[in-house]
Amino acid sequence: MSQPSSTCPNCGAPIVFRWSSSVQTVCDYCKSILVRSDLDLKKVGQVADLPPDSSPIQIGTEGVFNHKPFTAIGRIVYEYDQGTWNEWHLVMNDGSSGWLSDAQDQYGVSFAAPGRHLPEAGNFEVGEPFVWDNVTYSVSTITNAHYRGVEGELPFQYWDKTDVVFVDLLSESGKFATIDYSDEKPALYLGEMVEFENLSLKNLRQFEGWS
Amino acid sequence: MSAGGPTPPTKPQVRALNCPHCGAALTLRSFNNAVTIVCESCHSILDAKDPNLQVLQQFKASADEKPLIPLGSRGKIRGTEYEAIGFQRRTIHVDGEPYSWHEYVLFNPYKGFRYLTEYNGHWNDVSTLKALPEQVPNSSPPKVRYLGETYRHFQTAKAGTSFVLGEFPWQVRVGEADVVTDYVSPPRVLSSEKTGSEVNWSMGEYMSGKDIWRAFRLPGDPPEPIGVYENQPSPLTSDTMSIWVAFAAFALALVVMMIGFDLTADKREIFNGYYKFDSNKRGDASFVTDEFTLSGHTSNVEVNTSTDLNNRWVYLNYALINVDTGQAFDFGREVSYYHGYDSDGSWSEGSANDSVAVPKVPAGRYYLRVEPEGDPGYGVTYYTVNVKRDVPQYSLYALALGALLLPAILLTWRTLSFEHMRWSESDHPPIKWGNDE
């Protein structure tokens, strides 16, 4: 029973989970935000229309990262001064979850890295160094973003947000780190910047006039 | 089940819009990635994120720039098709002189943005870096390392935007300036651009106008490049390398040949005679030696003369004569040896011994005719004449080596002057060669 199915408590449409550990999903039909508690699905909110975006990734896009196949099953959409960007929730074939961020077609894959010591939100300076897992990262951007919406399945509850701060850090080896200050406790994600062609993506979105 | 069904995925399309200021038609080519779009007709910079395309800035173009790659044209760069969607001119001032280059924004809906720059006919294919370059500590001029390659600081300058056209994935404004720092390792250049507190790194790779013209199928010919560009690969570097490799190979071959010939050469002594010449004696001093046989393949014959000259000279007319054919090899040798003391100390000139090689002497029976001459009154000179067959001549090898060395040195010099031209334009000009006025 890897794909538990249920019905939307709001509109009765079938709800299929692609990943057994998903905590939250959005009804494809009525856009209700549904949270799973034991066997029940509870409506906690409603997704307003997502802003138009032109990411080539979509729910169901498949790819490979570090020899591990993955499928994009959900996303969080943020707005910042260059438009919007997506954090695609990936389910890896080993059952773990990861994130594919896509900002203006620049891609990075990252994974939650809990248990590391993280600095308090606030006084960061660009260029400031931090070391996690023996890799030195330096602060490259501090982004004041605005939560715009969610789609599909997520590994946690994420829907009642407004303004959020992200601190992005880069290393000399192509690794990157993001500290997400959207919750009370900051969360660290460690990953790598990737070239589009190296992700071997399938089931991508089509663009008018491009093949 | 709801009647509508799930929302089908939309297929992004190129949007046709109108400039809110002048009403001219605009095309939004990068879908929702554009942050600003510039109206071609009235030069209004518009907010591409705003449904009403709010006017953010208007600028006066002192000279209307026409992009060499028309916006909307597509070309393949490193195997991926890109569309030219934006164009800007950027200007730096060096010693009060403005220098301008052009930047093209390229877009592919999957691969994202890429850039082309053009300065005086020199092109660069530019993309943003995925990792941070590493500063090389205590380097002067400053150096950075990226993917195992070291880049040398070329120039730091404040680059202002002086003309814009089309769409940009960032907030573009005419008159705004960033500090741009270039580090070069031809054919690549690493550039850091400082905007506020953020630093963005990109890498450019040199491209020829011809490649750009071919990629975008542009009509006519690209503008001829002027001068040497900061990361232009030296057309000679590879040639210089290969000429030195060739030189080393030839030199090695020569040495091998030399050793080979030296080992296989006969170097056999054929004849040896001891003679006395009295210059006081009148009459013909000429004589002939005994016959000797030169065997083997046609080869050289070395005739060595050793004398007991002391502050004197003697002139020897030699003829090596074939007994059977009468063929004669004539040669004259002056042997002189002087020495003494003067205010500078001891000195000497010449040598009491002489050696000469007669080339290409066929095998056969030969004798030498010797006719010595000297100043009357000098008296007696004793000398030996020694004939050797097939003696390697090392001076020929030295000559060949020199002939090979010459083009290598010339090419190296030209390469160095190319590098000189490159670095004269940088913040670290080389020490001037001669007088440039």
Percentage of β-strand residues of chain B: over 45%
Helix content of chain B: 10-25%
What's the helix-strand series of chain A? EEEEEEEEEEEEEEE
User: Over the alpha carbons, how many angstroms does the gyration radius of chain B reach?
Assistant: 40 Å
Averaged pLDDT of chain B: 88
Low-pLDDT stretches of chain B: none
Task: Give start-end ranges of low-pLDDT stretches of chain A.
Answer: none
| Counted beta strands of chain B | 26
Number of domains of chain B: 3
What does the average pLDDT of chain A come to?
90
Tally of DSSP helical segments of chain B: 3
Characterize the structure shown.
The complex is a heterodimer of chains A (211) and B (437). Chain A is mainly beta. Chain A has a domain at 5-46. Chain A contains no helices and 15 strands. Chain A has strands at 5-7, 14-16, 24-26, 32-37, 40-46, 62-65, 68-80, 83-92, 97-103, 106-112, 129-132, 135-152, 163-170, 175-180, 187-194. In chain A, the strands form three sheets. An eight-stranded antiparallel β-barrel of chain A has the order 7-8-9-10-15-14-13-12. A three-stranded antiparallel beta sheet of chain A has the order 3-4-5, with no helix packed on it. A two-stranded antiparallel ribbon of chain A has the order 1-2. Chain B is an alpha+beta fold. Chain B has three domains: 15-233, no CATH class; 238-261 and 396-424, no CATH class; 266-391, Jelly Rolls (Sandwich), CATH 2.60.120. Chain B contains three helices and 26 strands. In chain B, the strands form four sheets. Chain B has an eight-stranded antiparallel β-barrel. In chain B, strands 18, 19, 21, 22, 23 and 25 form a six-stranded antiparallel beta sheet that branches. In chain B, β14 (177-185) and β15 form a beta hairpin. In chain B, α2 (237-264) runs antiparallel to α3. The longest helix of chain B is centred in the last third of the chain and has 31 residues, at 394-424. Chain B is rod-shaped. Classes of the chains: A mainly beta (211), B alpha+beta (437). Chain A binds chain B through residues 11-14, 28-30, 51-54, 56, 58, 81-84, 104-106, 125-127, 138, 140-141, 170-175, 193-197, 204-210, and chain B through 1-2, 4-7, 9-14, 30-33, 35, 49, 81, 108-113, 128, 130-134, 169-171, 197-199.
